[in-house]
Amino acid sequence: MEEKKNKITDSQNCDADSGVCNFDENIDKGSTDENSATTRVELIYVGDPMCSWCWGISDEIEKIRNQFKDTLEFRVILGGLRPGGGDPWNDEFKSFLKEHWTHVNQRSGKLFSFELFKKAYFDYDTEPPSRAVRIVRDMLPEKEFDFFKEVQHRFYVENEDPGNIDFYKPICEKFGIDFSIFIEHFQSDKYKRLTKEDFQESRQLGVSGFPSVLLKNAEHIFPISYGFSTSEKMTQRLNEIMTSD
User: Fold this and answer.
1) In this predicted model, what pLDDT tens digit does every residue of 205-214 receive, in sequence order?
2) pTM score, two decimals?
């Protein structure tokens, strides 16, 4: 039991000062596609729908996405905070989560509900909501980040379970996504694999925690923020890089 308890703080370490959640390191990086070089300049957001600091920064990410929509291609990469879950749903884990959710609320102002901690059982598995977002990337790419934020709201504010397929029904209805097709994708091995490829790509980029924001061109990857940041700070950093020789 002691080994499992340590896993709580080791593999989902959310820091109140830096505003970052470190991921579960038990994921291989996969292989790098040598043909993946691009001439596009991308603003990359690496996050997880069940990362509390990712919820905290969500409005700030939306601001910079909108601000640079005409000059940078915005891309979401799903990081894989706790794929597979498995932490014991006990008082220790609940206290750990509540403490960090409180920190995020105080710093970002984002709303949280704590009704989740009244549940007799909950598996904090971050793979299913990541898979859902990955599906929407193919079904309705222009709404991927909006869907991501709706998943966050439904989990953190409404405390519904992202492991339940019906969790996604009202979100799909909101965006006009055919729920029957979504279910087929959600239950498929294909999208489990594609979601894992996102997790691997985040490792290949050198990301060690979420949220992370990067600027990528054909030759370089520039860190914009690591952990919680404001849109003003990220904008300043982006402008410095984009106007430098």
Assistant:
1) 999 899 999 9
2) 0.88
